[in-house]
Structures are given as C-alpha cells and as structure tokens.
Amino acid sequence: MAAVETPGLREFLRDYPQMAVRPAAGQNLRLKGQFVFAAHHTKEGDIQDSFALEIIVRRGFPKELPRVTETGRRIPRTGEYHVNQTDNTLCLGSPLSLLLKLSKKPTLEGFAENCLVPYLFAISHKLKNGGPLPFGELDHGVDGLFADYLQLFGLKTREQLIYAFRLLGMKKRRANKLPCPCGCGIRLGRCRYNLRLREFRKVASRTWFRSRVK
Amino acid sequence: MSDKTHLIIEEIATCVDIPETAYDKAEARYKDLGDWFGRAESACYQYDPHIYPQGSFRLGTVVRGEEYDLDFGCRLRRGIYKSTHTQKQLKVLVGSDMEAYRQARRIESALKEKPRCWRLQYQEDGSFKFHMDGVPSIPMDDPQRQLLAEAMIKAGSADFLAKAVAKHAGSITDNRLPNYAIISPDWRISNSEGYALWFESRMKLAMTLLEKRALEARAAKVDDLPARKWKSPLQRCVQALKCHRDVMFADDPDGKPISVIITTLAAEAYQGEQDVGSAMQNILATMGNFVNRFRPRVPNPVNPAEDFADKWYDPAYQHLNLEQNFWLWLRQAQNDFQVIGQSRDADFIAEQVQTKFGAVIDARSLKDKLGLGTVSIITSPKSHTIVQPPAKPWMRK
Fold first, then answer.
1. ipTM score of the complex?
2. Do A112 and A66 lie in a common domain?
3. What CATH number is given to the structural domain containing A55?
4. Would A147 be classed as within a structural domain?
5. Which residues, at least 6 apart from B187, have a Cβ–Cβ distance to it below 8 Å?
6. Nearest CB neighbour to A118, from listed B256, B381, B390
7. Which of A15, A22, A135 is facing B390, going by the closest CB pair?
8. A21–B329 C-beta distance less than 8 A
9. What domain count does chain A have?
10. Residues A8, A93: one domain?
11. Within a domain: residue A107?
12. Taking the complete model, does pTM exceed 0.90, yes or no?
C-alpha cells in the first residue's frame, strides 16, 4: 500500500490540521506536528490539550501499529508515563489490545480516536492532577502482557494463554481438531470458545501469534 | 473553499513574492551579461550571442528563499553547428566569456562547471543572495523543429502555438553524455523560451484580467508587460504551491517535488479562472490527473518526449521516494488549502499560513480583509468521547 493511500489519512489531516505529512524513509508515512484534541469521559470530565507528536505509520497498517513519539518533551520519558526506554515511543497499550481497538475502525482516524486520544487524555490528566493514570495501567514487560491477555482471552492460566496463541498460529482447520484451551476437554471445533478465539484471527496474522509465543 | 480563499492566497503570494528591487537587480544582471557577450572583444561575439532569462524569473513564479537561482540561456545564433563543433567546444567558448566577465566584475568565487551550465556565484548583495546559471545553446535544425512541432500537435497543442514554440527550440550541451567531446548530431533538446510561451498561453486563458493588469501598468498590450508583472491567478497559485512544498520538505530538500513538475501540472490544470481561490481549488483537485500512468509521466508540454518526472523511476533516485513524495505533498496541500479556506478564525489561519507556507501574515489585518468582524469564530479541536474502556498503557522492559 502506498503511503498516500493509508486509510483515513484525509480525515486525519482534516481533524488534526496542525499535524502534517513529512518526508519519511522507505515506504513509511510520517506525520508530525501539534496534535490538538478535546475529549470527554463521563467520570473523569473534559480535557483539551495538545502534544507535539511524530507518528510513523508503516506499510502493514492497520495490521501493524503506528509508532508514536512525543517530541515536545512534555511527557517525562520514564516508565511511569509508559514511554519505552529504548526508542522513546509511547506505549499506548499492549499490542493485541491496540490491534483489537484498531480493528473496530481500521483507519488512521480510528487509531487517533481509539488508541491515541485515550492515552493522551490519561497522561494529560496525570500531568495536571498527579496520581495514577485514570483508566488503569499494566505492569511493564511480560507480566503486564500476561495480565492483559488473560483478561482479553478470558483464560485463567499462562499455560492456557500460550496454548491459545499456539492455536492461533495454526490454520483454523488444524487448530479445530486440537483440544480447546478453555479447559472444557473437548476439541476446539466443538467448543463455543472457538467463536471467541476466531475474533483474534481477524486482528493479527498467524505469523504474528507464532512470533509472540517464541 | 470559501469565497474568501482568494484573499488568503493573495496574502500568501504577496508575502512570498520577491521584492520588486530583487527583480530589478536580477534584470540588471541579465542585461549586464548580455552587454558583455555583445562586446566586439568577446569570444562569442562573432556567433551572434543572445542572452535571455529562463526558469522562474522568466515565468514570474519566483518565491522567497535563501538563495535565488537566476537561470539564463546563452544562445549562439550563427556559425556553430553540430556538424562543425562539439558540445564541449561550445561549452568552453561560452565559459571563457563568463570567466572573463567574472574577473571584470570581481566576483570572488570561481566559475563552476555544472553538467549543462556554468555557474557564477555572486557575493551577497544586501539580503539578496544569488547565483546565475548560464546554459550554452545553439538553434535547433529546421527539420528537427518541424518534428518537435508535430509531436506537440499530436500531444494536443494548438497548431499556431506548437509552431511558435518550436521556433525557440535549441540544442544544449551536457558533459555527462558520451558524445560530449566528439562531433555528433545527438545533442540534448531544450526550449525554455518555448516553455515560457506555453506557460503564458495558459495564463492568457484569463485574458480579460491580464488586459486589466496591462491597462493599470499603462502598457499598450499584455505582451508589452513582462510576465512577472502579470501577477496572474496561475502565477499566484504556483508561487503558493512552491512555498508550501518548500516548507514541507525543509528537512529533505532532495526529496521534494521539483518546481517544473508543479508548474507544469498547475498550468495544465488551470482553466482560466479569474480569481486565485477558484484557480487553486481547480488546480489542486485536478493537477494529479495530468500525471500519466505510463512514461512519460509528466511530459514537457513543449517537448512531449521529455519526461520531467524521469527521476521517479530512475534506480539512482529510488531512495528519495520521489513519486510517493509528490502524491503526499499534493494530499497535504489539498488538505491545507481546504482547512484554511473553511476557517473563520483569523488567528488559526495566520498560524496555519506560517507553519504550512512559512509566510508571516498579521491576524488582525487578515480579520479586516476577510470581513470577520470583531467576533472571531475560534477553531475548536476535534472532540472525542471516551466510552469504551481504553487500552491500558503498557511498556516493554
């Protein structure tokens, strides 16, 4: 997909006019500028704020997540604010959670709305009021991922989760013949859990799941 | 875009246009060089030299920049033929007069040889820093001109225009060619003056407006007025688009869409709109349609076999993503003009004009010009409602 054909680019530029396309390396799309937004949450109230951002959208979008960096240095580059220490990208959420959010509206506009704005809302809230992030946060590293994915998959143990990922790394036909990860004792093809697992196949490829198990 | 867009684009174009004094200085340089080549002692004198401006100074589409590029053609109209001279001999001949000129005018920087031209680097003159690129050429042979005119007609040009334009076609030198230093009939074709005439023919689609401009300048007819004083909607649009391009590619100047592509596509798209707002709206909406799917992608209108976009598919330039950059630039420009045109917030417009075009305009005077009155409508940011539980921030270890 050519960068100019990135789904939702036109709407993104319209909605965030202070962000603009900038030349990028390779086939990536690079957006840079001031991301100005207003957001409302029933419990947490209203926030209007702006952050200087750089967003790199890679060719595989929306199956591949954009990388966001805050260039204005308003967000402290620490674990407390969920800024990755290696490359200073913002960690908006666990990869699979974000892919699920993105799958509801697989466009750049959808990414801004469902992945970026909630994170910035929470950060802005924390910068103003201190305290923890209002919508909760995950532990760093593998522990945080397990906690998030166990909840997403509705499973109880890490072993079940790893097994579910293995099944998602296989072709449907093959996986259906194997025991279901929910612990029911019957094969996946016969269990209702199959329907739940199928939802994840829509948001990421078999290779993606296989690479995560490794 | 609103009916006020033309006022904003006029503001941008006025802001990015170069001052009249800079044009005067450029003209003085062209004339001085012409006089130099016309002296009986000059090496080129016996070959009937003709010095003429080309490029954006000729078209009246120069925009403010750190350094201006004054291109000129040096056509030797008599006594040099492809059958008697090599490209190198012509280049050296013109170079010797330019070197003598450099010494006479005490220009410090050495004369620099470029593939197709000689470059004279002037010292900074006040805030006006520039260099002059002189392209040596000889007139094209008659049969070749005939072929060129036929190719133009075949590509859709009017008969009279094709013939008028082909008259100016010339053969130029290029030191990258293998036959550069040997007698050969294969020289590169260039027709900058023909291109300027074609560009003028596009501007003249708004003839009523240009006649008004000529009248204001007390010129008997449009052609008596130099193109830079026409300040036509097409020129204004090209200037604004070039500025937008310069700002967008400030970090990556090698990757930017080149001026001749923007100028050609804008001129092709232009339909004679009388006001710059409608012209811009049409140009932005349709200029992409004039990019061919097959080669030549962006043909030179006065030499249809030449592709202005040849670097888009040249393996040596693949790393610059030139085609992708063109389409991204166009998308961004379409968006920015639309956003500015729809806004009723003078401060927001001024901010956008500065960040997207590098032009500083005063929000207060803009408010008056746009008739926005005392009550300004503030542009509000995109509003969201967070309903679903958001993803919880995480971090790699």
1. 0.94
2. yes
3. 3.10.110
4. no
5. B82, B87, B171, B172, B173, B174
6. B390
7. A135
8. yes
9. 2
10. yes
11. yes
12. yes
A166: number of Cβ within 10 Å: 16
Domain residue spans of chain B: 5-369
Residue B117: how many other CB atoms lie within 10 Å: 25
Q: Tell me the DSSP string of B135-202.
A: EEEEEPPHHHHHHHHHHHHHTT--HHHHHHHHTT-EEE--TTSTTTTS--S--EEE-HHHHHHHHHHH
Structural domain contains residue A99: yes
Q: How confident is the model at residue A1 (pLDDT cuts 50, 70, 90)?
A: low
- pLDDT (tens digit per residue) in B196-255: 999 999 999 998 888 888 888 887 788 878 888 888 999 999 999 999 999 999 999 999
In a domain, A102, yes or no: yes
Checking if the pLDDT of A36 tops 70, the result is: yes
Interatomic CA distance for residues A58 and A87, integer angstroms: 16
- A116 and A12 co-located in one domain: yes
Please judge whether A93 and B381 are an interchain contact, meaning their C-beta atoms are less than 8 angstroms apart: no
Q: Could you say which of A20, A92, A115 has the minimum Cβ distance to residue B332?
A: A20
Does the bond joining B53 to the residue before it have cis omega, within 30 degrees of 0? no
**Measuring CA to CA, how many Å separate A164 from each of A105, A159, A183?**
25, 9, 11
Check residue A97 and give its pLDDT: 96
Question: What range does the domain containing A166 cover?
Answer: 156-213
* Lookup: tokens for B108: 């410090």
Q: Is the pLDDT of residue B1 over 70?
A: no
pLDDT tens per residue, range B377-386? 778 899 999 9
Between chains, do B327 and A18 touch, taking CB under 8 Å as contact?
no
Arithmetic mean of pLDDT over chain B: 91
Contact assessment for residue B230 and residue B60, using Cβ atoms and an 8 Å cutoff: yes
Q: Alpha-carbon distance A133 to A124, whole Å?
A: 9
Q: Give how far the C-alpha of residue B264 lies from the chain's centroid of Cα atoms, to the nearest Å.
A: 8
